[in-house]
Amino acid sequence: RIGVFGTNYVAQAFIPVYRKAGFEVTAICGRTAEKTSLVADELNIAFSTTSLDEILLRSDVDLVVVIAPPDMHAEISVKALNVGKHVITQSPPGLCFSDAEKMVTA
User: Contact, 63 vs 87, CB < 8 A?
Assistant: First the structure.
């Protein structure tokens, strides 16, 4: 069960692919409530929010998919890993080597 971080066109393209592969997309998080709600409605995702923590604390999210701006990849990934979620991050993993290193050691 997937929680997606990001509402851009890449996220909107990948969500149907994850579903076709058998994954359930249970939640989506974006920067603005209006856009996030709109994307959630269009893609039939039950829960939408602008809060990173709300997604990470959900029991119906096992895997976090990060499709957000690169400067957010490490922050989201490290927080998700620290609460026991699995993570797939869009490339690049961070803005510098230390971002990627934080993700690997989390």
Answer: yes
Residue 40 structure tokens: 């959630």
Which of helix, strand or coil describes residue 60?
coil
Dist. CA 66–CA 15, nearest whole Å: 12
3-state SS assignment for residue 79? helix
Mean pLDDT of the chain: 92
**Per-residue confidence band for 101, with pLDDT thresholds at 50, 70 and 90:** confident
Among 22, 79, 39, which Cα is nearest to 56's? 79
101, 40 contact by CB (below 8 A)? no
First to last CA, the chain: 21
Contact of 9 with 28, CB cutoff 8 Å: no
DSSP-based three-state secondary structure for 28 = strand
Average pLDDT (101-106) is: 78
